[in-house]
Amino acid sequence: MRTPEVQQRIESRLLSALRQAGLRLTLQRRAICRFLAQSEDHPTAQDIYRALKPQYPSLSLATVYNTLDALVRLGAVHRLGEAGDDAAHYDADISPHINLACIRCHRVVDFPLPDVARLEDVVRQASGYRILGARMVYYGLCPECQQALNQEAQPTAAASE
After folding, report:
1. Which pTM value belongs to this model?
2. Fold (CATH) for 4-160
């Protein structure tokens, strides 16, 4: 769970990136940045749009996509490949970590691992690249979906009689 201080730091970083890119900090863009900073769920553009539209009736889906695209280009947000739902997911936590994506429920969670940061250092030193970010995603079934599938596969007592 992100603390309010961490959320504020992420939101400030996102707004600063948009400002440095010369984009106006409209109410809608501010709301998108706030939503990303508060979300640990790796939302899609549609998720963001649906969540913010009631509070910001003039918000368009194009504004959400354009803001996300700008944040990705600026390196302030990572775009993750789809999680079996044909949609890009967005991550405002750009620190080195692994993402775990469930191909059944499409949830994406962070899995912090110190070795990922060390791997980034090895790659940087060996390649000479200035690393702007990386995305490591493992696809599979989350524990809840595994349990649900196991329960679906077990015959009920009534069915076996």
Report:
1. 0.81
2. Arc Repressor Mutant, subunit A (1.10.10)
Gap between the Cα atoms of 48 and 46, Å rounded: 5
- Could you tell me if 108 and 92 are in contact, meaning their C-beta atoms sit under 8 angstroms apart? no
CB-based contact 102:141 (threshold 8 Å): yes
Q: Say if CB 50 and CB 35 are below 8 A apart.
A: no
Domain positions in the chain? 4-160
Q: Which amino acid type is present at position 137?
A: V
Whether the Cβ atoms of residue 64 and residue 30 lie closer than 8 Å to each other: no
Q: Which residue bears the tokens 């993750």?
A: 80
Q: What is the pLDDT of residues 93-145, one digit of tens each?
A: 888 889 898 989 888 888 888 888 889 899 999 999 988 777 788 889 999 99
CB atoms within 10 A of CB 99: 21
